[in-house]
Amino acid sequence: MMKVSRRVFLHLATSAVMLPTVATGASTSYPTRPVHLLVGYAAGGPLDISARLIGQWLSEHLGQPFIIENRPGGGSNLATETVVRAPPDGYTLLEISASNAWNAGLYDNLSFNFIHDIVPIAGVRRSGGVLEVNPAFPARSVLEFIAYAKANPGKVNVASAGAGSAPHLFAVLFKTMTGVDFALVNYRGSGPALPDLIGGQVHAMFDVVSSSVGHIRAGRLRPLAVTTAAPLDVLPDIPPIGNFVPGYEASSWDGIGAPANTPPEIVAIISKEVNAALRDPSFKARLADLGVEPFPISPAELSQYIVEYTEKWGKVIRAADIKPE
Predict the structure, then answer these.
(1) Which of 46, 55, 26 is nearest to 129 (CA)?
(2) Which residues have CB under 8 Å from 197's CB, separation 6+?
(3) How far is 285 from 274, CA to CA, in rounded Å?
(4) Could you read off the pLDDT of 38-55 as tens digits, one per residue?
(5) What's the whole-model pTM score?
């Protein structure tokens, strides 16, 4: 999990619910009272920080507090179910993410259908992954990594942040597309996995960039390639895995959703303000500081993206028979 300083976290936690002195661009009909934005993970994590950043912007530009509520549990399923059952009036929103799409394949008996029961409103950020190795590992490129793993089947240990996590799924997709045989070592998050990778207890990891970029810049880890289709601004000199494994692409994302049947005019108001934030240089700079990139997209485009994303990763999850821990 990405570490965030206490000072930054407290600033976001406070400012996300503060009202501005002057509300700009506020609608006369929405919102007229505080809005609750539910996050399915604990405070201080990547999704929570993303929600607090956009919550602060929406509070300032729509004239009502956007209150962040953390409802961890079931890989975000608890928060999702709460929002699904909420009135579709725009006052209970969900910080939607790649986890929601993955959960459709991971869990067999969910009480909701994410695609049908949540209306996507806006994307906030996208986060790529990076194939990184301990500096002592012999491979210095993706092709060398594949060759070494094939020459040493089952002997390369690749850290994972747990079954169904981004590092786990990104690694499984790589195994599927390359035919290499490496051992996946599950940890409870990137936080405990990274020290073992740096210490040499495991050899490699397909971590989210935001968790690892500090270690990469400090020379404690060597990046071989990013998981996105194009190079990332935060690691501009690192090539995509797809340059060597055609068709490979993996990234996580988050945004804002609402219960199905939320009025389209409310969806449009929130979408407009979120996308305004993603064009704002200072907001974009704050995302860059976190090692992520803005994800500007319309509600209709986001809806289609989620359908395709869910289908893609559902196939990966079912083929590998991945079950939540």
Answers:
(1) 46
(2) 132, 134, 159, 203, 204, 205, 221
(3) 15
(4) 999 999 888 999 999 999
(5) 0.87
